[in-house]
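ok new one. same drill as before - structure tokens go in, u give me an amino acid for every spot. 208 of them this time. try not to just spam alanines like last time pls lmao
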């Protein structure tokens, strides 16, 4: 009972966090659309400055535009707002911890798997990967691939790892949640540990 209660509370907190990140990424998309809309106006302003010999003013204007573009940059752009949100949030966090990130994602237009379930899977995998890397002084890395494989939705996360610690062994709840979601959709989970690398592959049918 207590374990089930804790899982429900964790799910609730996780969903709220996902929604917050989703709102942030949706705002980013709106900014991007607005910037594209104003693109020609920006070009006209720059041309006017240059025609008048106002190089310094043109340079300042470009710096302002560069600042705007920095605000609308996301690490991953799949087109799925919730998945973009969790990937951007987690991989941005990884980079702040000096973890080398190599990520690619392609989300099918029609996905029978609930975005929240995908985010729970990806969020837990990346949390575990970040924690494992934090225990290392050097050689930190995370590799992420999300896409299609053998007509199934495929998620792969690999990370650098060292000797297993108590902190790593305490991830049972997160792993259990991943396994439950895979079972829910009739998919499967494959975990492999090699010297210095821990990898998880998850495959879920595209149609129920």
């Amino acid at each position: 009972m207590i374990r089930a209660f804790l899982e429900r509370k964790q799910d609730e907190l996780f969903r709220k966090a996902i929604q917050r990140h989703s709102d942030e990424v949706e705002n980013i998309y709106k900014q991007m659309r607005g910037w594209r809309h104003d693109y020609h106006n920006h070009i006209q302003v720059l041309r006017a400055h240059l025609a008048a010999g106002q190089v310094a003013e043109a340079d300042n204007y470009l710096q302002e535009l560069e600042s705007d573009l920095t605000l609308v940059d996301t690490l991953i752009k799949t087109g799925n707002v919730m998945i973009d949100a969790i990937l951007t949030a987690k991989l941005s966090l990884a980079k702040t911890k000096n973890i080398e990130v190599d990520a690619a994602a392609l989300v099918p237009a029609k996905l029978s798997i609930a975005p929240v379930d995908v985010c729970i899977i990806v969020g837990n995998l990346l949390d575990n990967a970040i924690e494992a890397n934090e225990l290392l002084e050097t050689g930190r890395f995370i590799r992420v691939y999300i896409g299609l494989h053998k007509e199934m939705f495929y998620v792969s996360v690999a990370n650098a790892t060292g000797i297993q610690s108590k902190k790593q062994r305490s991830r049972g709840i997160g792993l259990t949640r991943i396994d439950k979601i895979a079972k829910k959709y009739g998919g499967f989970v494959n975990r492999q540990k090699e010297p210095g690398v821990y990898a998880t592959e998850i495959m879920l049918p595209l149609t129920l």
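The radius of gyration is 21 Å. and btw The first strand starts at residue 100 and ends at 105.
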